Amino acid sequence: MKQVIIASKNPVKIQCVKQAFEKVFPQQDFHFTGISVPSGVSEQPMTDEETYAGARNRAINASKAQPEADFWAGVEGGIQKNGSEMEAFAWVVVMSSDKSGKARTASFQLPPAVVELIDQGMELGHADDVVFKRDNSKQKNGAVGILTNDLIDRVSYYEPAVILALIPFLNEGLYP
User: Fold this and answer.
1) Which domains does the chain have, with CATH numbers?
2) E strands along the chain, which residues?
3) Does the model's pTM come out above 0.85?
4) pLDDT tens-digit profile of 70-96?
């Protein structure tokens, strides 16, 4: 049985990694564990670069915390301003002892009321809770679930990016 360490205790991030690995490697048995490790970036990453760095740092720090594992996965949600608008997205980094893969989710536009609170220094999840009168939405359906009426929840939003980050592991000869 191969061990996969997810660099978060957030149930959404654990579930999306679990589902992706089980789809990509249906014949393999895995044990999934979520651990808390630092991202090395701000609580709310505000650029594409910072968000990617957070996912990468999480995977690296998970590998240091649990070096005996077979895979380490970092998932980091972020936001970025484009003029007066703001988009949300996430980066995923998956590592093994000898290779890594990465992928970014699709992005979506945040509503002005949420952007206003973020501009005042609030983290996206907290801003969602205030605007949409929710509690702890970042560990549930998140902004993407709220804004799509749960047509896409956070697990189904992140899972394709985890699958895409596993491409180098599916195509051994193409990614040395």
Assistant:
1) 2-105+153-174 (3.90.950.10)
2) 2-6, 30-34, 71-82, 85-95, 100-104, 108-109
3) yes
4) 999 999 999 999 988 999 999 999 999
